[in-house]
Design brief:
Length: 237
């Protein structure tokens, strides 16, 4: 019998809490790891980008440097699954970012479910960002204006991420959301653009959703009634 964890995506909090500037939920990664071995997110106080790969948690700080960290660190938002790909595909040769996106989207048979996506190989160019540590309540769209951006040329590494249906935009970034981690695990960030040059892709269909709702004062008293979709789109650019 198939393990039900193999098609479940877990969020420790909705992404709209980040959009509203709630950057401290104090959820330990020891708890997150009970729900997956693959995923992405951030750290309390928005202190860099998170990649979970093969069960290891990596923190990519605002200088673009990546390092494996302990499960004692805390997160306000993480999205994980137990990665078990259902399909494997290759894209050979150098391709533009738009061609890569079109090809990747063509591998997803429906826009109405979640997918876990792992891309490994060589990249002619990777453009990423990682935001610096913040205090609570500064809107994410404002934080994004100050984000350091990095470019890596002729590099190898892994893209880790998810596809989220558009109607789930209050929970996670709609569409593709990918973080990059170099093959030597020393650099990375939130993907802005890339030009792959020989990659392998594994895709997992995720048809069950598990959502944790934080019990922090900030979260419990926040007014989520206003439309935050535009703020999230601005922050993701």
């Amino acid at each position: 019998m198939q393990d039900s964890r193999n098609n479940c995506i877990y969020f420790c909090a909705p992404v709209n809490a980040l959009v509203e500037g709630i950057y401290q939920q104090r959820i330990p990664f020891s708890e997150i790891r009970q729900h997956g071995d693959f995923g992405l997110g951030t750290f309390d106080h928005l202190d860099g980008e998170m990649v979970m790969l093969d069960g290891n948690v990596y923190q990519i700080t605002s200088d673009g440097a990546a390092a494996k960290v302990s499960e004692d660190l805390l997160t306000p938002f993480s999205c994980v699954t137990f990665y078990r790909p259902a399909s494997h595909d290759r894209l050979d040769g150098e391709r533009s970012y738009q061609v890569f996106l079109d090809w990747l989207n063509s591998l997803l048979p429906s826009a109405n479910i979640f997918y876990a996506i792992r891309v490994e190989g060589r990249f002619s160019r990777v453009k990423v960002r990682s935001v610096p540590r913040q205090e609570n309540y500064r809107p994410l769209a404002e934080v994004a204006k100050d984000q350091p951006v990095f470019e890596y040329l002729d590099t190898e590494g892994t893209l880790v991420g998810f596809y989220t249906p558009s109607f789930m935009g209050s929970l996670s970034v709609p569409g593709l959301h990918l973080h990059f981690l170099s093959a030597d695990r020393t650099t990375g960030g939130h993907l802005l653009e890339c030009c792959p040059n020989g990659i392998a892709v594994g895709i997992q269909f995720l048809t069950t959703l598990e959502l944790g709702l934080p019990m922090s004062f900030d979260y419990l008293t926040c007014d989520f009634q206003r439309d935050t979709e535009k703020d999230l789109e601005s922050a993701e650019r």
